[in-house]
Amino acid sequence: MKQAYSENMGAGGVTSKNYITGFILAVLLTVISFGLVITRLVPQQVVVIGIFAAALVQMLVHLHFFLHLNRSSAQCWNVMAMAFTALMLSIFVVGTIWIMHTLNTRMM
Known about the structure:
- With 108 residues, the chain is an all-alpha fold.
- It has two domains: 1-68; 73-108.
- It contains four helices and no strands.
- The radius of gyration is 19 Å and the shape is flat.
């Protein structure tokens, strides 16, 4: 009964190996981010780009290994909902920054 329920939800093939792999990757990406900031071996622009890149990869690791989102047909609607949410969030953030910048230039 439990096996059929998890397969209906699109979570078939979930093993502890997937969770351990995801955990190790997430910890590694976190250590890389902290290492970039603490060591100060590279310029600040490279640190910022590295942190953003590590954050993006870590987000994808979480989506794949912990939320089990992939390109399978069972996950199609979940991926589309996530993409729509990301689109709306980026529109809100970029729009807010644009409005704040415009207001700042008009006030000064």
